[in-house]
Fold this protein.
Amino acid sequence: MALSSRKPIAVWLMVCALATLTCARAPTVQDVRSPSSTFDDAPPRPGVEGVLVFLPSSVHTREVWQSLRDELQAKFDVVTRAVSSETTSADLLREVRAVRPRCVVLIGNQAMNLYAQYQKEEPGPYPPAVVLMASFFEEQRARLANSTGIAYEIPGITTFVQLRSFVYRPVQRVGVIHRPLFAGYVRKQRGLAAVEKVELVSFEVSDEPGPYQIRRALDHLTRREKVDAIWVLNDNVLLKPELIANGWLRMLHQNPIPVVVGVSSLVDARLHFGSFAMLPDHAALGLQAANLVFKLSDEGWNASGTSIELPLSVQSVVDLPWARQRLQFREEALDRIDRIVQ
Amino acid sequence: MVAGALLLCAVVAFSQDRPRLIVYLHTEVKPRALEALLARQMPGTDVIVCGRYRDFTRELSTSADAALALDPVLQANALNTDLKGLRGGRDSEPYVLLSIGGNIDAARFSTIVLGTVDLLGREGTTDFVATLLGLEAAPEIKFVIKSEDLLPLLQFQSADAVLLPEREAIRTKSLSKLDLQITPLATRVGLPAVSFRNDTGRRVIRPLVLALDAETNAKLGVDTWR
């Protein structure tokens, strides 16, 4: 049953709890810690080139690392070093000097930032770097010499095509609310979505929007633009508890349409905010990163000349009661959804 | 706490006694859903559905009584084909290339960038692709972990074409508004098949596979078993 505005305190408490989870799981911040921070590397083999991996220890980074290691280990020695808040760029320098890797893989914002600092402090040449799980890497690539990688954000086009296969209602026009900072990103996504004949309708709010701006933006998108669905960007500023409770939910509960989020904790059968979530598939991301390392190997290790790739694989989540009651959900889609919330 | 430990031991012992069927198939059905469906149809059997080749080979190395996978996957692991899946009376299916805007001329096969599911591990899949394309050496390959990831390769123009079973290509076309074109390939690929690794597999699992209902078989990509 949907939470209504008659229970504002309950909504507020739930949103606060979810927002805490959201912050813990969003790509922009570090993931949930795993109990173990050790990574088991195979012993080095003479004459085999090394790939040096820097990563924080978390459930998701471990999943990426396992898949990456499984793919690479036949041809390369994979050497893994965990980074933490205590790690410094000098630590990275020491590891790079000791391992002398053919390629470096940087997983997460922290590893990328440390490596950027290392490059600032040390003259090159630098081994090619492959960056994964870093927020908006396309916008940050210029900070790293000889680098390439895979964007972490799930492209709208992937989200919309999946959504189209989950609901009977048409998905031709999708609304998105964004801050000025994300205007370039939204423009790129609009071009990509057009490939699949989906029109991305955007509404720009201020840098620090209040609940009223969110409600006004949603009102414009749903009533005036008559969009078929809403796509929620992984922008923590737009997902503050106050904005969810007094902005997003007030409008979305009045006029239910599919809402796709990028954080699984926002799909909640009590709150009914995200009706679907599309999340990175971390095992697939590891495989895609391995593809990239092999491509660099085949093409002479020139990372700067290699385009940043978009993530190919997603995991999907559905708020099943809401989708069934309000969104013309296709029952046969249940077989194709990774996680069902009810 | 002691009671909990005893219960856990009992559960482990119980599950170790149950026959185990390892399934590795790339279908549109998620492993979670396929596992639940098969478990309902095969009471008393532990059904483990793997989404990746590496997981399949690891599970095989444990005490599996039977394996269900595409025939080439069974062959690559030196497993006998004891039960063949049939669709439309045949035990194999056509594979195709799917590309945007036009067909792929066979003369270009060796120079394209091709997307494919990592069916048999990196090396095995490379050989599999070369065989299907009728080439000595495979073209550049982009591996993906599941068949639904092939469409993004085309959408992002990361591959010139993707390789997949014809029926999967038809389904992919139905999901997309791209101008997707099919290039048929001459070589057919074996449908799902079952290998029984011991008497338990033959005695317990075989009749359960033969008794699977039409809906389950359809999700496995077959009509019947022989």
